[in-house]
Write the structure tokens for this entry.
Amino acid sequence: MSIWNPWHGCHKISSGCQNCYVYRRDSQFEKDSSLVRKTQNFDLPIKRKKNGEYKLKAGEIVNTCFTSDFLVEEADKWRSEAFEMIKLRSDLKFFIITKRIDRFTSCIPSDWGNGYDNVLIACTVENQEMADYRLPIYINAPIKHKAIICSPLLGKIDLSSYLNDKIELVSVGGESGINARICNYDYVLDIRNQCMGKNINFNFHQTGAFLKKDKKIYRILRKFQHSQAKKANIDLYF
């Protein structure tokens, strides 16, 4: 698995952005996270080694634009070139997460059709309000591979009307950072039950810094938030 951040920086658009980890990390270096800028690794998918081989090996999953949003407005001038590289590297699987699914149809290339085979576009929702705004757009969008990311999970979410056989995965996670809001484990399990009822893969990817379980709130160090979620052993794969 590789990471490709063609641009860095974003501006906050909803409550899920409040304690953004990119802003938190950039603040340590007095960097302005709201300034969207092209990175030195912009052309990573087509970079080659001295022997001529691609640096990113065929078959890899490429986590794309994890320090920004692939559909952020300020990147409109670079996105077509990024799509060209994605299309060229059809031997890679690009995993893209966005909070801006309402911009999707205005951002895709002319040859997108029903989607590229090697691209999974995931839509992020953090509460019921965002689920009810973003997911009706998302489920009707021309995308071949789809996933819903409930992270940071800020409340109980009913996904039942949005779960269909086009959704390949629902992944849930809490919020990290010292100012993190509480992730309620009951809400995690509720989403899991919704997925189980529709035979949709489910993944609990991160506990967050504060996890409420059995009426207790647990403080979980950042380095254990992924491993503790895995230890819960509640993932589902059909």
Helices lie at 21-27, 76-88, 104-107, 128-139, 185-198, 225-231. DSSP finds six helices and twelve strands in the chain. The longest strand covers residues 119-125.
